[in-house]
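Example 4.3 (complexes with small molecules)
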Amino acid sequence: MLFDRAAIHKRLEEIAAQITADYPEGELTVIAILTGSLMFMSDLLRRIPLPLKLGCLSVASYHGKTHTSGEVIFKHLAVPDVAGRDVLIVDDILDSGHTLAAVRKKLETAKPHSIRACVLLSKRKQRAQHVNADYIGFEIDDEFVVGYGLDFMERYRNLPYIGVLKKELMDQPNQ
Ligand code: IMP
Ligand code: MG
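Answer. The structure with inosinic acid bound is encoded below.
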C-alpha cells in the first residue's frame, strides 16, 4: 500500500484549497478523463467551492496492458464548450504523458482562456511527451499502481487506497 484513505483525503484538502485560491474569479470548466479519475474527481470537486461546469472525456491508450501504446484514442467527446473558459483537466496519473498531451492539444483547438492540469499521481520518469501537471497529488516511483480509480485490466478501481500491483497479480489478474 502506498497511500491510504486518510492520506489521500488529507492531500485532497490541500490541492482543493490551492485550486480554489488560484481561481478567484471562479467559473471553472473541469474536464475529467474517464474512467480512472472518477473517484479522485468526485472527492476533489466536493472540496472546491467555486462555480464550475463539469465535462468528461473518455480516452484510451493502454488496451489492457501495462505499457502505453503511445496512440491515444478518443472514445467519446462530449465536453462543455470551453471557448474563453478556464479549463482544469483532471486525470488519475501522469505516466508517459501521451494522454495529457493529447487532451491538452484537443482542448486548445476550442480556444479556452487557460488550461491547467491536475493529476492525483505523477510517476518520476522520463516522459515520452513533454507535459507537466500544475497540481500533483503525489509523486511516485515508476511502478504500476491500482486502486482509488486506477485499474489493471479494469480491476481494482474500487479499492479505497492506492497500492503497487503485485507482480504475481500482473500474470494472474483473476486473483
Ligand atoms: P499516459 O498517457 O502514459 O501518461 O498514461 C495515462 C493513463 O494511463 C492514465 O490515465 C491511466 O489510465 C493509465 N496508467 C498509467 N500508469 C498507470 C498505473 O500505474 N496504473 C494504472 N493505470 C495507469
Ligand atoms: Mg486513465
